[in-house]
Structures are given as structure tokens and as C-alpha cells.
Amino acid sequence: MSFAHGPHDLVLIFAVFVLAGLVKGVVGLGLPTVAVGLLGIVMAPREAAALLVVPSLVTNVWQLLAGPAFGSLVRRLWPMLVAIVVGTVGGGVLLPGAGGADAAAALGGALLLYAAAGLASFVLHVPAGAERGASPLVGLVTGLVTAATGVFVIPAVPYLQGLRLERDALVQALGLCFTVSTVALGASLLLAGEYPAGAAGMSLAALVPAMIGMMCGQWIRGRIRPQTFRRCFFVGLLALGVHLMLKPFVA
Fold first, then answer.
1. Cβ-count burial of 128 within 10 angstroms (0-12 exposed, 13-18 middle, 19+ buried)?
2. Where does the secretion signal sit in this chain (predicted)?
3. Is the pTM of this model over 0.90?
């Protein structure tokens, strides 16, 4: 895996992370989804995921620490979090060097499912008695999807929304899940030899545009209707997912 990018590539990476940070600043999530989705057009998803590690970790720890229920959420969600680590690291070992058209198509499929669920306002209802069995299964599937695509929203986000958490607790739970997913993804890439020093340096540099975008998004959030922005976000993801899925057939 090479990270010797030219000036045009660096401008693209900067712009992608500004946009991804802006989306996260407005809607509270979406940085890894947007960043990996857009970069997946020009590079393998796991190469894009390597650039994501530092910006995702910092912004999600920020989100995680902003809520009031860290301890109770860890006690409630630990089976899911452990399963995410197992699925991500195990998937990285089973699928070393995943890339090319198949990985791009898998990423497109994940984005397509996520966008379709968002546009349809799909709400998953998780019965209280089902949480114990569902939590590790959801975590394991999320980990495998993360290992294959670098995106960790499916099925974790619909599942957490289905737990009927209060708004602040939900935002903190998402931050907790994404933080664990990011750490597990970094470990998966390291074990597969796909996180060289060049990738770490580029990932650290990508934190700057991501933070700029996130601060701009927080400013925008108070000036537009969040529902309108979310709809545009999901429409864009839908188009991007379709493009990535069709890419092997039109290349």
C-alpha cells in the first residue's frame, strides 16, 4: 500500500475531510462514511480507512466525552463493543489486502443500505428482552462490515437508534461505538500490514481539515433545518453508493 500522493491528491484529501467534518458537525455522525465513500472512488476502501483513523478517533472521543452517561452505556453495550473488536480484527485477518473492485462494490452496498434506511426514515425497534442476544450479533456484523469497507454504521447505527435512548445518551452511545470501531480498525490495519508510517502521517494531517469542517458544521447547524440537511446527506450517499457498486461494470 503506497501513500506517496501528489499535490492533486493532497488537495482532494483535504477537501474530502473538510466536507466529512462539516457533515459530522451538522448531524453528529457521517465523518467516516463520507470520507471513505468519497476517497473510495480513487483508492481502495482500506487505504481510505487508514487515512480515517486519527480524525475519526479524535472527533468521536470528543463526542463520547460530551455526554453524561459514559459508565452506564459501557455497562449496557460492552457485549456489542467486544464483538465489534472481534469482528473488525478477525475480518481484517481473514480478508488481508482486500481492495479493488470487489471492495469498492461492498463499500457501495453499505452506503446504499444506510442511505436507503435514512431516506425511508426506517426505525428499528429492539424489544428489551432481545437486547442481550442481539447486541453481540450486531457488534460482530458491524465489525465484519468495518473490516471489509472501512465504514462502521451498518448495522450499529440503526440498532442503537432502536434502543430508544434519550437524545444525549444516543449521541454518546454513537461516539462510544465509533471510538471502539476506529481503534479496532486501526489494529486490524496494523495486523494486516496496511498502516505504514506514511499512512499514519497522512491520517494525522487529515485531522486539521476534519476539525475545520466540524467547526463549520456546528456553525451551520444553528442556521438550517437539520431535516433538510440530513435528506441531502442521504441522497448524496445514495448516489455515491450506486456509483461505487456500478464502478466494476463501467470501468
1. exposed
2. none
3. no
